[in-house]
Every structure is written in C-alpha cells, then in structure tokens.
C-alpha cells in the first residue's frame, strides 16, 4: 500500500468503504492509484468514508438512501452502480431501491429516475445471478 495511505483516518475509511462497496472493488481502485490519482483515493477514503460515513448521526442504510437520491439527481450512473451494490450491502431491498427512484421521478424528473432505475436494475440482476451461482456451488 502507498505510504500516503498509512493514516488512522484512512484505515477507518478503508474499513467502511470495503464493508459498503466490497473489498474487491475497493482494492482495485487503490491498486490502480498512481501519482496522479493517489491523492483523490486518499481524499475519498479519509473524508468520504472515514469522516462522513464514520459519523454516528445516520446509519448506513439511511446514508445509502440519501446517496442514491443525490446521485440520480446529479446523473452519475457510474456512482449509482457502486452505491446500489452498497445499498444492498447495507440492507436495502429491491423494493426499497425502486421506491427511491419513484421518489426521484417526482422531485428530480422522470429522465433522472429512469436512468437511475435502469442502472439499478442491471446491478440487481447481476447480484441475483452472482448469488444464484454462489448458491449452486
């Protein structure tokens, strides 16, 4: 691991980030960090995942609901994909996620909701297939 990733706040953020997004995804992101992108990985891991997601005020499930809503409003499909997986890891159901995008449709617009729901449906299908494959072993 890069030397600049060796802080207490980074370790706290790394734990949260791995638990929500999955250790494999997080490791790929960190392994891909180079001299240009390492500072962004450090910022995201320490402040987003260590500081903000580490705060006691909201549980992870609630934070996932907020994130999916904001990411849909901002039209960030790559981040929606990551955070749908995180939402499932944080206990949201397929129906919970559907309700989020229905709410988004009214307050942010139908196009934003449709785009978000499309990405969410893809992720949910991928996760179901992965779980079915794991269950067949």
From TrEMBL:
Pfam family, one: CMD
Domain Carboxymuconolactone decarboxylase-like stretches: 39-122
GO molecular function, one term: peroxiredoxin activity
InterPro entries: 4CMD/NDH-1_regulator, AhpD-like, CMD-like
SUPFAM superfamilies on file: AhpD-like
Protein name: 4-carboxymuconolactone decarboxylase
Species for this entry: Pollutimonas bauzanensis
């Amino acid at each position: 691991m890069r030397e600049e990733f060796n802080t207490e706040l980074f370790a706290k953020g790394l734990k949260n980030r791995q638990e929500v997004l999955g250790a494999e995804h997080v490791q790929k992101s960190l392994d891909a960090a180079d001299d240009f992108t390492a500072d962004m990985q450090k910022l995201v891991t320490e402040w987003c995942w260590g500081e903000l997601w580490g705060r006691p005020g909201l549980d992870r499930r609630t934070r996932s609901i907020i994130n999916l809503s904001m990411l849909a409003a901002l039209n960030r499909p790559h981040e929606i994909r990551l955070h749908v997986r995180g939402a499932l890891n944080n206990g949201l159901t397929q129906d919970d996620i559907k309700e989020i995008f229905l709410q988004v449709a009214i307050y942010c617009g139908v196009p934003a909701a449709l785009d978000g729901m499309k990405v969410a449906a893809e992720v949910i299908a991928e996760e179901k297939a992965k779980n079915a494959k794991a269950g067949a072993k």
